[in-house]
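Researcher: Here's a chain I'd like modeled. Treat it as a single chain, no partners, no ligands.
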Amino acid sequence: MRIYVPIITMLFLSPNIFAQQGKVEGKVVDLKTNTPVPGATITVTGSSNGAITDLEGKYTLAIKANEETILKISSQGYSPKEISDILVKPGEIIHMNVLLETTSKMEDEIVIMRTTRRQETTAALIAFQKNTNTVSQVISAESIKRSPDK
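Model: Modeled as a single isolated chain. Structure tokens:
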């Protein structure tokens, strides 16, 4: 009889030990296009616990129960987002979809300048072929225009 009491106690307590966590699951989606964001990272601040979204933008994250947690969601090309005051009960699953907004870089202007004009005359190409360190064969634009196959 003494052997059965600890075994029965362990059977009833073991589900409670494993149920001290809850889950947060959902989908990370682009705000403008409503498409999934694969490869986004979801981390719990203050711990090393985290998850990465799959190709469909879905994630599942186990967090400690009965503690308020803060989730940080980030992905390349998107502005990071923090979600606070998440409280999960033991064994509970919270469904949480996240919308991420894209970031854009604004530049003043881009200037493209052309410094030299490449000469494709026969004389210029023969000089290039003569001065190069490698073996090369060149055909000028003038030669192509004169040939019957344009």
